[in-house]
Structure formats: C-alpha cells, structure tokens
Fold this sequence. Notes:
Blueprint: E1 2-6, H1 12-15, E2 16-20, E3 30-39, H2 42-48, E4 65-73, E5 85-89, E6 98-102, E7 106-108, H3 115-135, E8 143-146, H4 152-163, E9 167-171, H5 177-183, E10 187-189, H6 196-204, E11 209-214, H7 219-227, E12 228-236, H8 248-257, H9 263-269, E13 272-275, H10 278-284, H11 286-301, E14 309-314, H12 318-326, E15 333-337
Parallel strand pairs: 8-9, 8-11, 9-10, 11-12, 12-13, 14-15
Antiparallel strand pairs: 1-2, 3-4, 3-6, 3-15, 4-5, 5-7
Helix pairs in contact: 3-4, 3-11, 10-11
NADP nicotinamide-adenine-dinucleotide phosphate binds next to α2, α3, α4 and α12.
Amino acid sequence: xxxxxxxxxxxxxxxxxxxxxxxxxxxxxxxxxxxxxxxxxxxxxxxxxxxxxxxxxxxxxxxxxxxxxxxxxxxxxxxxxxxxxxxxxxxxxxxxxxxxxxxxxxxxxxxxxxxxxxxxxxxxxxxxxxxxxxxxxxxxxxxxxxxxxxxxxxxxxxxxxxxxxxxxxxxxxxxxxxxxxxxxxxxxxxxxxxxxxxxxxxxxxxxxxxxxxxxxxxxxxxxxxxxxxxxxxxxxxxxxxxxxxxxxxxxxxxxxxxxxxxxxxxxxxxxxxxxxxxxxxxxxxxxxxxxxxxxxxxxxxxxxxxxxxxxxxxxxxxxxxxxxxxxxxxxxxxxxxxx
Length: 339
Ligand SMILES: NC(=O)c1ccc[n+]([C@@H]2O[C@H](COP(=O)([O-])OP(=O)(O)OC[C@H]3O[C@@H](n4cnc5c(N)ncnc54)[C@H](OP(=O)(O)O)[C@@H]3O)[C@@H](O)[C@H]2O)c1
C-alpha cells in the first residue's frame, strides 16, 4: 500500500515521500480500515517539525484519524463488520491507504456524512468532549475562554459550551470572527493583535473565569491561569506556541512561560489545572475512549455537535495541506482524500 511517509523534519515539501508499506493485519480486537481519507491535526505539524515526543522514529507514517471502509476485523470485534463505513482514531499510521486500530477507537458513521465531518469526530471532537464533559463539567452561566476557537478542537468546544449556555470568550485571527460568532462565541478576541488578558479582565473584573481551554501553552497558559476566579479550572491539552519558535531558546521560552507551580498555590487559590492527552486515554483507557466516541456520535446525530469541514486536499498534495493548516487559514477540519 502507499503511505505518505515522514522522512525528514522540516518544510512539508521535503518532509514527506510517498512510499510502499506492507498492509497491516488485523489481530485480536483490531480493525483494518481501507482509508477513504485522513485528517490533519495540529500535532502533525509538531511531528513534522520534530517537536512531538510521541512520534515514532523516522521513516514514520503519522496521522491520527481516518474515515473509510472496514476491510478486515480481528477476533473479538463485534460492533462493526467488513464493508461498514467508519470513523477511526489511529495512533499514527493514518496517512496511508490502509490503517489499523483497536476496536474501541472505531465507530460506524453514515454513508452520506462528508469526509471532513467524519474525520473531525475521532480526534478533535473526542478531545473536546473529554476535556469539557469528562474532565470538567460546564454549567449554565459559566464564563469560559476557548483559545483557537475556530480550529478543529476549538469549534467543538464552542459548540459544547453553547449547548451548556455558557458565556463564551474565544480567541482567533480576526478573519474568523464572523464564523466563531455564528458558532456561539459572545466575545471574540484577536489575540495576535490584542492582549487577551487585558481584554477579558476589562470585561469581567474580579469575577474571574470559570474555565479556560488552552492548547497554545507558554505564557498564554499562565495568563489564562491568572484570569481564573475561585473554583476555576484550566485544561492544558497542547502547546501550539512551540511551532512558532525557530530556536531552542525560543522553545525553552515557551516551556518556561507556562510558569513554575507548587500544589499549595492550587489549594490556597481554589483553582485547578488539568492535563489531557487523548493518545494516552485511547491506549491506557480504551473503554473511556469508546464511551467518549459514542457520546460524540450521539451528540452529532442530535445536532449539538456540527463539525465544520475545512479544505480537502488530494493525497499527493499533503504538503499543501500541511502548509494550509500551519498558515492559520483553516476553519474546522482539514482533510486529505485518497479515493
Ligand atoms: N491533547 C490532545 O490529546 C490533543 C488532541 C487534539 C488536539 N490537541 C491540540 O489542540 C490544539 C488544536 O488542535 P487542532 O488539531 O484542532 O488544530 P487547529 O486549532 O485547527 O489548528 C489550527 C489553528 O491554530 C491556531 N494557532 C494557534 N497557534 C498557532 C501557531 N503557532 N501556528 C499556527 N496556528 C496556530 C490558528 O488559528 P487562529 O490564528 O485563528 O488562532 C490555526 O488556524 C493543538 O495545540 C493540538 O496539538 C491536543
């Protein structure tokens, strides 16, 4: 089978080569998917730049989510059959004509669901739902800050916070304001030109925020923490800021920017920090992942979640897809079609 293979860290056009690989075999509890298309996640940019510690050694086939047809199932798989159209979370291996994953990370989807929508469910919507509903419970009237609110995970978080009748602050590039307002953001902030801390502080004063969803990291995380009121919680689930720094010093700046913490600070301020890595959940708590995936599908069918498909690229144009995601132009899920 053909797979877009990461052979070199750096610019997308030099990083990937289409190479032949063996088609994997479905073992016990595994599902083999003939891939119709795969999704891009921000972590792919980090992996391509050599900034993602979980990435397998090169040459590597990366990719976290696929949509396609079940080609084979191993023993013990009974919720999908050969021929079903499915959305699946892969732990790498997604940028290929066939991908293998565990049964808990596969869910059937309708034949007429668009590729981009199906792809958004497995990683971005499961991450958002796990953060917002399993790690934290949002309540009516909560004041919530969502960074990169027009992105894949960001859009899902906005839709969930809207469902919970929260007051939503969302950061994004200004060109995306109309989109995020339509999704439910009450207070859009162009964090690239304005200091989101001062903007929010001016609006809410001492009240403080109830929840911050942060996947930017560095100083952005520290400022988010300072905006929380008593009982407030910040969920850290990424460090997009790392991709902006070109030097090791810049990267160190992001790491140190998070701040240094002692548990006593959490007790005395009555504020909490939570960390989420969905790969760890899928690997170590497969039943939790499956529960989350089912809920995501349920809420998509009921209309609470309405994933937004961004641009679709051809298999050979993967470098263009990477450039597009990194250029900050995307709204929702960027996808690559194989057939
Ligand atoms: N922990 C987990 O398990 C998990 C799972 C999925 C995703 N994540 C994390 O969640 C975040 C969002 O992921 P996603 O896949 O949904 O991506 P995404 O938000 O769709 O990523 C693209 C957007 O990120 C924003 N952005 C912020 N900093 C950026 C930077 N330095 N360079 C380029 N764009 C930047 C840009 O929007 P604006 O300019 O409009 O802000 C851009 O359009 C990422 O940090 C990702 O690593 C974590």
